[in-house]
Amino acid sequence: MEIVFFGAGEIGRRACGFFDMLGIEPDYFTDNSGDLWEQECCGVKIISPEEACRQVDAVFLVTCKNDEGIREQLIHNGISPQHIYPGKDYFGMIYFLCNITDKTEEIKNPEVIWQNVLFDLAGGLVLGGVETWSLKRAEELQAKGYNTVCLTHDMIKHTIMPKKIPVVQLPYAMEGNTNIRVKLTMETICKHLPCAIVCNFPNLNLVAACLVKRMYPEKTKVIAVIHNDVTLYYEAYCKVQKYIDKCLVISSKIRQTLISEGFPRDKIHLLQWRTVLGTELDRSYSLKGQRIKIGYAGRLVLGQKRMDLLMFLAQMLRNKGCDFQLEFAGIGDYESEMRVQIQQYGLADRIHMLGLLEHAQMANFWKRQDIMVSCSDWEGHSISQVEAMAGGAVPILTDVSGVQDDVQDGYNGYVVEVGNIEEMADKIIFLERHREILAKMGMHAHETIKNRQLEEDVLERLLKE
What we know:
This protein has helices at residues 10-21, 49-53, 67-76, 90-100, 129-143, 178-191, 204-215, 231-239, 252-260, 307-319, 335-344, 362-367, 383-390, 403-406, 421-433, 435-450, 458-464, and strands at 2-6, 28-30, 40-41, 44-47, 58-62, 84-86, 116-120, 147-153, 167-170, 195-199, 220-226, 246-249, 268-270, 292-297, 324-329, 351-355, 371-374, 394-398, 414-416. By secondary structure, it is an alpha/beta fold. The strands form three sheets. The chain has a seven-stranded parallel beta sheet with strand order 9-8-7-10-11-12-13, with helices on both faces. β14, α10 (307-319) and β15 form a beta-alpha-beta unit.
């Protein structure tokens, strides 16, 4: 079998360096630029596409941006589609690796105890659903005797720092070469073997985890998590599915999409957010004549969370004569602009900015809210949504992933189309004018979450298995 990399540019050189770390070298490079023929790339001869296609039993890794165009070119020249692999990113390279050079089956070792658990927090130690879930799971596992570690890097600004969980910051700032960053991550993972790695993102940590799994299958478990309904997750996880032991998904919509993309059904587990709540709902709701209380908790950012639309919602409610109080719990890079708009639009008596609250304060935050709102363009399965419903706040949300798992429109909340702020305002005004329905829907919201609290934590169950 002849290995040919199609594309002798920057992507090709990066691919060559990546495979060199694994002791693998292509037999040839090829490129559509005739000026490069008979020269070398990374010490490997560059031949014409015509000559490359004449190689006996050749397999091609397409190491350039125009992978679809090159794929069509190779098929036109008689190369089987099964012998052509996308290689412009690391996940494509790993897919090529496990299909071409790695035919070993998974090694099961019942004697290994998975006490070391690494949590991928490459997005930084920041306020967010992924980070909140990871840190809470890490603390719970640590309390039960597991050794938990947060794995992040020094190229991002951290806004929170766990008090109980050790943090390893990979020195990415000192090394711009992504291949070296992968190697640094692999070395860090290897120091914690045997271990389970909880990969929250399709990133370099997942790449490194897959390579360590390939090297030490009996000492490594890779647990991938899909936190939102973004195409990149599906593409990456499906390419490296051979090295993923289990995949946790946070909504039924995500599970179905992942299955349709070809990920093995038996590796997928639905992860339901758990929250602390009493057996009975101990709270009250604002009465007619009192301001209806609306809450939002999460990152105050423009992208995804659409704080601009929430500010527009507040203006619309005021203009429609709704008497409301809106509280924001959270921080983010749109916060300063929100404060300017609050003053500019005369909303200072209606909107309260509470800043970052401790997680222990969130139960009381939601118990004093009548309604929880979110205008997100996309989500995975919002933790705030579950915590708000547990506290009896009626959710009024845009129709993003995870909403349909919790909210039955008109029964325990309302779901509106993404971007439809006017309908969201109308739902709030309806509940303001029908407080008896507000209380009834709030009770239904609480009961929805209460009825599934007995389910065992999926992550811990997988570690035990």
